[in-house]
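User: Second chain of the day. Same drill as before.
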Amino acid sequence: MLILNRHTGHNGPLDPRDAETLGVGAAAEVERYLSHRNNHAPTPLHALPALAAGLGIATLHVKDEGTRLGLGSFKALGGSYAVIRLVLEEAERQLGRPVDVAELHTPPVRAIASGMTFGCATDGNHGKSVAAGARLVGAQSAIFVHAGVSDERVAAIARYGAEMIRVDGTYDDSIRESARVCAANGWTIVSDTSWPGYERIPGLVMQGYTAIIREALRALPQAPTHVFVQAGVGGVAAALAAYLALVLGKERPAFIVVEPARAACIFASAQAGEVVKIAHGEATVMAMLECYEPSPVAWRILSRAADAFMTVEEEGAVAAMNRLARPLGTDIAVVAGESGGAGLAGLLAVAEDHDMRQAIRLDAGSRVLIVNTEGATDPERYTQLVGVAPEMVLRTAI
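Assistant: Same format as last time:
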């Protein structure tokens, strides 16, 4: 199901706060911070010409975040970046002077970080990023997970030294509990969603994501005409849409936001013209996208910079995982987790539907960019859904 953006602010200028947070200068600063990470390298951009031909488009490229900073997903860019920024800001406050990222591992800064605890709620990937960032700087972390987060994902976060706190209910319940406990204990909450009075830190998380599109635009032979990006609360979609709007202006590509049909809170907000919280229903296989209320900051951006909103079904997400694992022709194999291939699932659905193709002007000349937002962050689940272990898929890609 696909709808066009009919919001009155569509194609209007971004809020000045968002333009400052997600523009060229901020993105360049993110890359400077990343240059101080020992395991940083731009993630691959893969061309899939055989799949593009089969879909009746000119080109298809996938930005593969499955290797980002050794954490397996794009979330590695957001939570850990925000933690580093917040530690440096606290160091500046306590030391009474400017403190650069080059000083991150100096004894004075690490002593300050050791007295800080960072908390967040997560479906898996964001919590891993916050925990990894805390360990990197010598701080503590407390990660809140809801009932639907698998034991394997919990264990993957705990390996970074985080205190793991189980919360009954949904992701939204874990957000509320994390905010309550962090406030009570004086911990710093690093959420990837916003709420009234709490926007700056989610903005820093989103700022980290600009590295994805900055790297992609640098590597692409031509700017894309269409971009399909999946959304949970909307952070990564908003970050990429904002950067494209700010950098390319009227030449920006059509931007399509893709969500699970079972957790389509941004789609519902687009229908209503304002932030909508939807009812919790049956769980989706796209576990990292199972969110029931958008981030207000993300919606503020997407209402202006997104062009269409669509939903995909469960079988579509699994089909996308399998399509990437078993490529056509000489296309490279890509390991995409359950949520990682949702953008491709959206493209596949549009490509097969004449009306949807026409609605977003997808044709034989279209140059499409998608983002594989995660690798096999739950290898056992990946193997169940694809029928082959992720390491075997990666061997075929070499």
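The radius of gyration is 20 Å.

User: Great, on to the next one.
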